[in-house]
Design goal:
Blueprint: H1 3-18, H2 23-33, H3 38-45, H4 49-56, H5 64-74, H6 78-92
Helix pairs in contact: 3-4, 5-6
Amino acid sequence: MNISENKLSASQAISEITGHLYFGDMVKSLRMCENVSQAEMARSIGISRQYLCNIESGERKVDVELALKFAEYLKHPKEFFISRLLEDQLYTAGLDYTITLKAS
């Protein structure tokens, strides 16, 4: 099992224990586990610290392109971030689905 698979399993375990894990909460948790400040992460992915703060608190939503930047910065599989983003959008709409992405 490689490091990306370990990280994916850990993220899935958190979700199973706590219930739905919102995208912003996931980003914040992973950022904090890496001991990275909001300012440092925001600067690295090209957004303001306030925008990142709003994402982490659930006040702002992200698009797929930004989700990919988070995945790259945090060194997690892009499929996991995209599926988590889509699951979050569905959950917010009252639909509790799990998304699994597979390359075509």
